Each structure stands twice: as C-alpha cells, then as structure tokens.
C-alpha cells in the first residue's frame, strides 16, 4: 500500500479497510471499477452511497494542498458505475487561481477515462461556488446528485438555483458529451501527437481555443490534460492543471517532469500559453514547448 493512505485507512471501518488495502497498491490512482465497488458493497454490507461516503478519506489522501493544508476529497461516479477520485491541489508560491478543486480533479479524471455522464458527486466538504458552477457545465449537470456526510442527498439544482450555464450561451453539447474537433499537425513526436489527440477532445465552445498539455516524467510516462471551459469563464479548468492533477493522483512528484508540451488551436480567441507557463514554472524547472496549430487548418 502507498504511504499516503496509511493515515486514512485507520479512519475506515475495518471490514472496508481489510478489502481496500490490497487495492491501494503502487498503481492505484483513484479509480475503482463497477465490479470492485460491487465487491466492496458485498464485503462491507454497506449500501453503495454509504460506501462511497466511507471512501472519502481515501480521495482526500490524493490532495496536495501546501498552502491551506485543508484536504478535500471528491468522488465522481459515472454512468458506467466506475468511480473516479480526486483531491484539491495548490501550487506552492503561485497565485491562488491556479488551484485545482477536488471536484475538478475527480470530474476531469472521469472525463480522461472516457466517462460521458457523471451521475453522482460525493465530497467531504460542501462544494464551493466555483465547483457548483464547474459541475453545472456537465451533461445533465442540474441533475447530478450531491452527497455530503451528514446531509440529505440533493441535486445540483438545490445547491445552484437560478443557475447560469452553457444553455444560456446556446451551447447544446456540454462538457463530457462526445465531441471531436478536426485538428491536424504534421509531427512524428509521440508526445505532440498525444497532445494533439487530447486537444481534439477538449471543450472550448466559448473561445474555440482547443488545447491540451502532455507532461512527461523522467521514466517516460506521460500525463495529459485537456482544456475544459466554463460558461462563467473563471471556473474553466486549464489543461496544465488537469495534467498536474493527473500526476498527483498517480503519486508522482512535479520534480519528475522532464518535458512539457502545450498544443493549441491557431483559430481560437485566446492563448493559454502564459497561464500554462506560470503553472508549470511553479511546479518544475522545465520550459514549456508551445505548438500552435496552423490557423488555415
Ligand atoms: Zn471547490
């Protein structure tokens, strides 16, 4: 079991802890599939929603909050029945708006894993306004059920009444809906091709600035992030943040980054290069490779 889970395991019911310890091996990055959840329900005799609340200390152990030291854990449950955990991340020494909220980490985890609908969000603290707005960008966002410890389960519409969302800006394919944008680039660099693939799956209906980041660690592993915009703009999740949060879920240290690539559309209204460089430089002494796609394509 990874060291970061030692403390949280002690907080879990023993029947759950016994079953969970073998799952929290070196490869664990916050994903449990529907069968593993069914096995845990059977072993613990807990109803699934109580089981997911009981797993929140595990999600919170994925957090990396050097500024607040306030550990938030969130779990996104997809329509597939799989669950995706995430914790909050703060970039040491960098402006607070670079922070990643636990719900964003969990939702982006689900998106990168191919989920197209999130039905439930389980979180150990009441979602902040930023996260309520971020969740409202999702497919059927108003119907997502929010589960909190010691609170009745309520849909997002209860937490975000009179919501402003993608529909108000005439967006009919919200975040997580299947969409693929035609982006092309002549490159044989596997990292660039990987970033291009993710950029084509990114969500930028307000600017057209489709973008993705790939980070490579010294051992050759890659971690990707896609751009995810928001109708209220500020709660958008930048691809660098999404890639950094993937690294944290995999228990990788930012000092392991050896290469970083940002690919972005040349036809968009904005560029993410400045914000991405700031977040990268706060994390690792690596220069960002910036590739803007030919605007004629
Ligand atoms: Zn939040």
TrEMBL record:
Pfam families: dCMP_cyt_deam_1, dCMP_cyt_deam_2. The active site is at residue 103. Its EC number is 3.5.4.5. It catalyses: 2'-deoxycytidine + H2O + H(+) = 2'-deoxyuridine + NH4(+); cytidine + H2O + H(+) = uridine + NH4(+). The keyword Metal-binding applies. Its cofactor is Zn(2+). Binds 1 zinc ion. CDD domains: cytidine_deaminase. Keywords: Hydrolase, Metal-binding, Zinc. Substrate binds at residues 88-90. InterPro entries: APOBEC/CMP_deaminase_Zn-bd, CMP_dCMP_dom, Cyd/dCyd_deaminase_Zn-bd, Cyt/Deoxycyt_deaminase, Cytidine_deaminase-like, Cytidine_deaminase_bacteria. This enzyme scavenges exogenous and endogenous cytidine and 2'-deoxycytidine for UMP synthesis. Homodimer. NCBIfam families: PRK09027.1 (NF006537). This is Cytidine deaminase. It comes from Shewanella algidipiscicola. The lineage of its organism: Bacteria, Pseudomonadati, Pseudomonadota, Gammaproteobacteria, Alteromonadales.
